[in-house]
Design a protein that fits this description.
This protein is mostly helical. Helices cover 77% and strands 0% of the residues.
């Protein structure tokens, strides 16, 4: 129940933080995405209350230190990049850190609820997990469609690169540091 209480606190903190992030965003698309996720996050709080009840517990929060730290970093980013063309890319980065934390935690909670045979809790947690994954994908799309280029001063107003072009661009391919490290280790071992 500790992890559940942790996420209950986290979601409530995120509800309070998202309006500030939306206000800091200069991209209308990013602002809309953040405000849309705010509505979802308010729904996550309600779903978590239902999960507590499905577990026979009263909803209660436990200070989520990870979220506190991530949101403090988001505040610093908003301050540091205010007025900069990089503000939207920086906000996306901060928001994705929060999303990744939520995805990891909800993935575990969903699996644990399933192992305990609590289908109601498992289903609610899966629904939240799916929404967090979709929010993360939306943020990635926003970054790829201009906010990252704007941060570099390379944005072309009104033009976006197609997903196929983005995948074929070597500078846009995902970095695989683990695989690269393994390759170097294997070469050294030879």
């Amino acid at each position: 129940m500790d992890e559940l209480a942790d996420m209950y606190d986290a979601e409530q903190r995120i509800v309070r933080a998202l309006p500030k992030m939306a206000k800091a965003a200069t991209s209308p698309a990013l602002r809309t995405a953040i405000l849309s996720h705010l509505k979802q996050t308010e729904g996550h709080v309600k779903k978590l209350e239902r999960v507590f009840r499905a577990c026979g517990e009263k909803p209660k929060g436990k200070k989520c230190e990870a979220t506190v730290g991530l949101l403090e970093e988001a505040d610093e980013i908003a301050t540091d990049f205010k007025g900069s063309p990089a503000i939207n890319a920086a906000l996306i980065s901060a928001a994705q850190k929060v999303e990744h934390y939520e995805i990891a935690t909800y993935g575990c909670l969903h699996e644990w609820a399933g192992l305990l045979g609590n289908d109601t809790a498992s289903g609610l947690l899966l629904a939240i997990l799916d929404e967090e994954k979709a929010a993360n994908a939306s943020l990635t799309e926003l970054a790829r469609n201009g906010d990252n280029q704007d941060a570099l001063g390379q944005g072309n107003e009104g033009e976006t690169e197609s997903p196929a072009a983005a995948r074929s661009n070597p500078a846009r391919r995902p970095i695989r540091p683990v695989a690269a490290a393994r390759s170097r280790s294997a070469a050294v071992a030879r």
